[in-house]
Design brief:
17% strand, four-stranded antiparallel beta sheet, alpha+beta, 201 residues
Amino acid sequence: MTRKTAGQLAHKASQDTTDYNALEVGHAICDGILEELRKCRELHNPIFDEDEYCIVRVIADDCLITGLKRYKYYGWPYLPSPRPDQTVFLYNKPLDTFTKRLWSLPSPERMAMLASTDCIVPKQYEEMQAWSVAFFKGTFWEFIRHQHGITMPSEKEYFLAHREELIKAGCQVPDANFSDPFDFSKISVKKLVDAQNTIVK
């Protein structure tokens, strides 16, 4: 049997008028997370020398198929820059375990709503609200390190602390006045197709 493409599945989902329980949908979305975290850990363990590193999960909209969400996982040796629709786990290599979920940020709209409300939010949103407030206040790193009792630097902090060593090792300091503009002549469009009107055969 031929496996259906993401476009075919998205088209089928757009025709579905069933009312689904949001809690059941949430559980279904979470089902594959542990397996994906395991795969990411196995991929990055030989790469990173650090005893602890981050594994990041981001949710991204598909650029071609409206309504389709893609989940991306990657390892990061420092605290990654916070962004909406992002969850970050701290992995301990000697213990071979995930020791903390450092943060989980929702969509941009939900982040703004949580950070700006004066109302008491349900208990399951309290941490998310605190992370969103810290994000908008510009105190995110301080808050995360205090909350979890860690000292891991962010990528920017790490590079600033080791700037001279990295330059001596051969890393180039980019010229802020120079940029390589994109060559739009490389793009050719034969026909524009509205993804909403695509017919699945």
